[in-house]
Amino acid sequence: DGGITQSPKYLFRKEGQNVTLSCEQNLNHDAMYWYRQDPGQGLRLIYYSQIVNDFQKGDIAEGYSVSREKKESFPLTVTSAQKNPTAFYLCASSIVFGQGRTEAFFGQGTRLTVV
Amino acid sequence: RKEVEQDPGPFNVPEGATVAFNCTYSNSASQSFFWYRQDCRKEPKLLMSVYSSGNEDGRFTAQLNRASQYISLLIRDSKLSDSATYLCVVNMGSGGYNKLIFGAGTRLAVHP
Question: Could you tell me which residues come within 8 angstroms of residue A37 by beta carbon, excluding any fewer than 6 positions away?
Answer without folding.
Answer: A43, A44, A87, A88, A89, A90, A109
